[in-house]
Amino acid sequence: MTKPSPPSLSFMSCLLILMLAASTPGIVLAGSPTNPILFVTQMPISQDFATIGSTFSNHHSRIDKVGRGGDLYIRYTDGTLRNLTQEAGYGSTGVFQGTDAIAVRDPHVHWSGTKALFSMVIGAPPAQYQWTTEYWQLYEITGLGAGQTAVITKIPNQPETYNNITPVYASDGRILFTSDQPRGGDQPHLYPQHDEYESTPTNTGLWSLDPSTGEVFLLQHSPSGSFTPFVDSYGRVIFTRWDHLQRDQQADADALAVLDGNPAPYGTFNWQSEGANAPMLNDRTEVFPEPRRARTDLLAGTNLEGHSINHFFPWMIAQDGTGEETLNHIGRHDLHNYFNRSLNDDGNLIEFIASVSGRPNQSSILNAFQIREDPSVAGRYLAVDAPEFRTHAAGRIVAMSAPPSLAPDQILVDYITHPITNTQTDDGDPPPSTHTGHYRDPLPLSDGIVVAAHTAETRIAGNEGTRANPMPRYDFQLKTLAPSGGYLAATGSLTGGITKSLTYWDPDVLVSYNGPLWELQPVEVISRPQPPDTSMLELEAPELQMFQQEGVDPAAFTADLAVRGLALVVSRNVTRRDSDDRQQPFNLSIPGGATTSGAGGTMYEALYLQFFQGDQIRGIGGTDDPAPGRRVIAQIMHDAEGANPPSTGPAGSVRLGTDGSMAALVPAHRAMSWQMLAPDHEPVVRERYWITFQPGEVRVCASCHGQSSSDQAGQGPPTNPPQALALLLQHWQGILFRDGFESGDLGQWSSSLGRSAAIH
Questions:
Q1: Are 565 and 494 in a shared domain?
Q2: Among residues 499, 524, 549, which one ends one of the domains?
């Protein structure tokens, strides 16, 4: 393993400094931040499923999901509060929240510190039983300085009839955001996209908008949703993604019910395609990945354990949407406490158990919500490890250092608040003395103070009142954190509490509330260096050698792929696997070619890599009256039909080179996954994540399914020129000649577009 880079400032060192701060001049222990804080208030919502505070499906604008009456505030260093939305003429001035009512969320400050983006929804039911339709839209505010006038402007050219949230400034002036707009744009028949868990409406991923021209494109397609993106100091877009690439549990419940002679409770079915006029099929077949453990009927007679995955992981992409992968390629082996092996008849394959794995990181986490970078330590990130339900996405604050140069298996997690703060106490039980409540929206400030939204409540979320007169248990307030028992804990409130009297129709019941509003999503108003713009990396020597060998201009090639809506995926040696992964086969061999072994025992031959694309074709509710929208399920790749060299393998597959290499053209702007196949077409190793590629992207993974510091044989990343790429480039040239292009003409054409191998 490579030696871990020494962190700029370890967590224990930070604690020591904090404990000494009271007697050390110039070090802030806790108290008033030295820069203004921008934040939002929100009418508290007791329910924690697909509501404004939930971990997923929190993009809804319906009045029962996000009550109206909140505002955008700024807090100055002397404690003065300024209601910016009210000052700019937005929101209801009375108690009743009707057509002019607002809710606000997701403030993000520009590098200059003089303006900010945020999301706002305007409107609420004016009378009982009247559902109204409003959408979260993106806005920009100026006039943040004391004594200035707040001016709010709606961002032009954004999708108008979809929910657009979490806007952030990109380094090139574009705006990055999440939206529930369908993957292909304005496709009402696919709205909303259902997540992979309970078919709950979700956002479709990250989008990029040029407000001046209206150009908008999909950065990243997420079948279950992506959350809270930001651009870090290295120019990377860091975000949380819900990873749930498993078969549909609702379809499984339907199938098992039918087997028992009962009606299907969810009414799942497949549409023939994503087309608006596609027929509904009396079928719920799935082809990837392997069945879940609950499907004992499908697993019977196989050596499969059954596969499930469900977590919220840190991810990153370049600002042009290329290079999507987990943060520093970090994996479950580096963060999780346990997951199962894939096969049950190979003694080399074992369950992953963190405590006996010997990994450097001994502080396991399952989820990473609301990630923020420490402005004082580049590459150090704070996040919240919270349960999926029950706490409004609040739990314990954690930190990890992950600068781009650090290998993923060397990333260490620190518990910033006590580890027990991501658990809940049962009703009637006293909380443990070490449980200091639940935390969300951590904000490390440039002066060393840490601020977070905090509630002292240790039980699960709930309503101590009624639907008409709610008394939510959770009362989030912005507080500074200070040392307590070896960790940090909430101390003084930044605002003293902001209360409001509100009434609104939900729409059946008149809701009345008089009490403190939630204070959420703080951001520091300060100028900071603008991060570098990031895009796809240039070709490395092994791949460039193949382009030169085949006489192909990389610029012409990527330009042609962009026009065709395709991307190139390359691996140098798929037999090389990460040394820590003992859950899927790792003794791998290409017949007559490359072989890599990590132990004695069974050797698995691999001859093909088969691709799957995420098609939004799963319906719910039955074919007689299907619910609006559809869920993504994996289908054999078909959008790139004919683009790859002929293969003797199954549909959607490419043949592996004898050197272990792989090269394939795949559809862009669509979630993709894959699996390695034996000569008899049986799966050997399966990918566990969805990945999106940009048009014209050339994505090189030195070893498919990845390695951290070393592979299973103790070797570093492979550097061989990939033979499979040479065959693909030969095939591509044949396609050009078939279509009537000469390579020189295409090179001239691509140059006129101003494209290069380094951009999509």
A1: no
A2: 524
Look at residue 743 and tell me whether its pLDDT is greater than 80.
no
More confident residue, 535 or 18: 535
Per-residue burial over 444-478, b if 16 or more Cβ lie within 10 Å, else e, is: bbebbbbbbbbbebbbbbbeeeeeeebebbbbbbb
How far apart are alpha carbons 390 and 54 in whole angstroms? 9
Distance CA 522, CA 525 (A): 10
| pLDDT tens, position by position, 153-210 | 999 999 999 999 999 999 999 999 999 999 999 999 999 999 999 999 999 999 999 9
| Confidence grade of residue 436 (pLDDT, cut at 50, 70, 90) | very high
Please check whether residues 358 and 502 belong to one and the same domain: yes
Q: Please report the pLDDT score of residue 264 as a whole number.
A: 97
Task: Tell me the sheet residues that pair with 207.
Answer: 177, 218
Q: Is the dihedral of CA 212, 566, 320, 226 positive or negative?
A: positive
pTM > 0.90: yes or no: yes
* Cβ(591)–Cβ(659) below 8 Å: no
Is residue 568 within 8 A of residue 697, CB to CB? The reply is yes
Backbone angles phi, psi at 734, to 5 degrees: -65, -40
Give a yes or no: residue 531 inside a domain. Answer: no
Q: Find tokens 């992968």 and name the residue.
A: 325
- The whole-angstrom separation of Cα 113 and Cα 519 is 21
pLDDT tens per residue across span 636-668: 999 999 999 999 999 999 999 999 999 999 999
pLDDT tier at 15 (50, 70, 90 boundaries)? very low
Secondary structure (H, E, C), 735-759? HHHHCCCCHHHHHHHHHHCCCCCCC
Same structural domain for residues 235 and 100? yes
Which range of residues forms the domain containing residue 553?
541-752
pLDDT band at 13 (very low <50, low <70, confident <90, very high): very low
Measured over all CA atoms, what is the biggest interatomic distance in the chain, rounded to whole angstroms? Answer: 78
235-255 as b/e: b if 16+ CB within 10 A = bbbbbbbbbbbbbbbbbbebb
Same structural domain, 515 and 416: yes
Q: Are residues 256 and 231 in the same domain?
A: no
CA distances from 62 to 121, 290, 370, 606 (A): 10, 37, 23, 50
Least Cα distance to 36 among 87, 73, 77 occurs for 77
H helical segments located in 308-372: 332-335, 354-357
Name residues whose C-beta falls within 8 Å of residue 92's C-beta, 6 or more positions apart in sequence: 68, 69, 98, 100, 101, 102
Does 75 fall in a domain? yes
CB 115 within 8 A of CB 141: yes
| Residue 152 falls inside a structural domain | yes
SS (H, E, C) 230-252: EECCCCCEEEEEEECCCCCHHHH
CA separation, residue 655 to residues 364, 589, 649, 661 (Å): 38, 14, 7, 9
Query: Can you give the pLDDT at residue 345?
Result: 97
Task: Identify the H or E element spanning 16.
Answer: helix 11-21
